[in-house]
Amino acid sequence: MKEAKSKLVCLDCKKEYSPEEKTRFRCDCGELLEVISDFESFNRSPENWKKEFDSKKDEIAFLRYKDLLLPDLPEDKIVTLFEGDTPLFKANHSLSEKFGIKDFSIKHEGMNPTLSFKDRGMVAGVSWANHLGVDFVACASTGDTSAAMAAFAAQCPSLNSIVLLPEGKISFEQLSQPISSGAITIGLQTDFDGAMKLVQELTKKHPIYLLNSMNSIRIEGQKAIGIELLHQMNWKIPDWIIVPVGNAGNVSAIGKGIRELHDLGIIEKLPKLAGVESEKANPLYISYKNDWAELKPKKAENTIASAIQIGNPVSFKKAVRELKHFNGVMEQVSDKEIMDAKALVDATGIPVCPNSGVALAGAKKLRENGKIKEDESVVVIATAHGNKFSQSIIDYHKGENTYSNKPKSVKADLLEIENALGLNQ
Predict the structure, then answer these.
(1) How far apart are CA 34 and CA 382, in angstroms?
(2) In whole angstroms, what is the distance from residue 81 CA to residue 189 CA?
(3) Per residue, what are the HEC states of the chain?
(4) From the first residue on, what is the mean pLDDT of each consecutive set of 10 residues in the chain (425 residues)?
(5) Does residue 111 fall inside a structural domain?
(6) Domain range holding 378?
(7) What is the pLDDT at residue 267?
(8) Is residue 295 part of a domain?
(9) Is 309 part of a structural domain of the chain?
(10) Fewer CB within 10 Å, N side or C side of the chain?
(11) Number of folded domains that form the chain
């Protein structure tokens, strides 16, 4: 039997476990685990790593970067929806001017099959569940996690998926996704943090494989976002990468993946990393402003960025570690700032979700307060597609907002249409 390249290691006491344990998501001491892999055992130089990635350019992204994600996963156990290879949009001149950032790009993870970045984690998590031979997978979700998990699980006849949702707190589009993929979908009269607590209790009591971001295997899949981004940029490092933060798994994953590239010499410098929260769900921002103080869970208030309406982020410690390592910062933004930033980007034909609007508004704010300098390059990670949140778009544009584009209603008459278009002036 081939020696395993990866192990699970406690963030705190460093106790080690095998990733083959089906219900192991925390250390016996109660702390989260992380995957540590022996990349040196591949005996590749930085240039050979790059050649390896280039040689697999026609493979799915997960397989291309698999040696840095889950090297022990048998290829015949991979469950894919052909996710990844998402576009890196260069902001046009007008958008760059409005944000005050000359070199401004958007990595759009909403162009994945289920329309969010969660597909990156689920190709890893569901594939590993398939490898372990489990019967049930489960998650608590604010919408995107459940959509991805249910879709990937639907590709495996032997896998059944269970979704716990905070009832009435996700969009209709998000709710429709796990239902249509055949998941057992249960609405709970609580918020995400309450649903997260219950799914942990459920998976601890029963042989059900948990696929929230506290599952370190899933986080490994999301590392591909940052790795692929830098590969797309021909290994040129942007000055800033900006990520919206909710449960803090994605900023942790992106940071971990890029840090490992740096450790292997594949890249020679690190970008700065910025996390951005809604001011109505901002525990990491509060910690940052208090010199990275211990997490103080809070009751998240209702925010337009519903997918990151989380007051007790599971991956807090991992996120803080990565943000510190990257000399990073946290910022917070209001609902108005979120939707205004989203509207600016939407108007260029790039449809982003309100949660992506959090990161975009954060980029604008960081530029305005001088943390981002005029000549620095910035990549914002857009996490989901705008079409998953149609009601928020309609409400914004029907209202009296900064960039409202109100739909017009006239009689079915040519003259009325001409008048509405200003053609008879």
Answers:
(1) 25
(2) 32
(3) CCCCCEEEEECCCCCEECCCCCCCCECCCCCEEEEEECHHHHCCCHHHHHHHHHHCCCCCHHHHCHHHHCCCCCHHHCCCCCCCCCCEEECCHHHHHHHCCCEEEEEEHHHCCCCECHHHHHHHHHHHHHHHCCCEEEEECCCHHHHHHHHHHCCCCCCEEEEEEECCCCCHHHHHHHHHCCCEEEEECCCHHHHHHHHHHHHHHCCCEECCCCCHHHHHHHHHHHHHHHHHCCCCCCCEEEEECCCCHHHHHHHHHHHHHHHCCCCCCCCEEEEEEECCCCHHHHHHHCCCCCCCCCCCCCCCCHHHCCCCCCCHHHHHHHHHHCCCEEEEECHHHHHHHHHHHHCCCCCECHHHHHHHHHHHHHHHCCCCCCCCEEEEEECEEHHHHHHHHHHHHHCCCCCCCCCCCCCCCHHHHHHHCCCCC
(4) 89 96 93 97 98 97 98 98 98 97 98 97 98 96 92 96 90 90 94 91 94 94 98 98 96 98 98 98 97 94 92 95 97 98 98 98 98 96 95 95 95 95 87
(5) yes
(6) 88-115+216-398
(7) 98
(8) yes
(9) yes
(10) N
(11) 1
Tokens of 144: 């995107």
Nearest alpha-carbon partner for 216 in 144, 322, 128, 141: 128
Residue 341, domain CATH: 3.40.50.1100
pLDDT, averaged across the chain: 96
Instruction: Check residue 1 and give its pLDDT.
Output: 55
Is residue 77 one of the residues assigned to a domain?
Answer: no
CA 208 to CA 199: how far, in whole Å?
Answer: 10
